Amino acid sequence: MENTAHKTPEQFKISGNWENQAKDLKQKYSQLTDNDLKFEQGKENDLIKRLETRLNKKREEVINIIRKSEPKAL
Q1: Alpha carbon distance 69, 34 (integer Å)
Q2: pLDDT, greater one: 19 or 5
């Protein structure tokens, strides 16, 4: 049985061109604003928290959404 009560938040790093990913996310989720998608290197948690609030989703869901917008390696 897995204990998730004391699970630390997953460390998440943005990879790829964030400008392109942000445009993609903005098209898929019209409620997102440029301000919601503003990103500074090393401040991934701030970005994730804004997206959690705006999309009304949990951290893991937001991370999965961002990962799906990352360019696929060839």
Answers
A1: 16
A2: 19
Nearby residues of 35 by Cβ (< 8 Å), 6 or more positions away: 50
Can you list the pairs that 27-33 forms with residues at least 24 positions away whose Cβ atoms lie under 8 Å?
28/69, 29/54, 29/55, 31/55
Angle, in degrees to the nearest 10, between helices 59-69 and 44-55: 110
Above 60 in pLDDT, residue 42?
Answer: yes
The structure's pTM equals 0.80
Q: Where are the domains of the chain?
A: 18-69
Distance CA 14, CA 44 (A): 7
Among 64, 40, 35, 61, smallest CA distance to 50 is for 35
Q: In the numeric block, which tokens belong to residue 55?
A: 């999309």
pLDDT attached to residue 69: 86
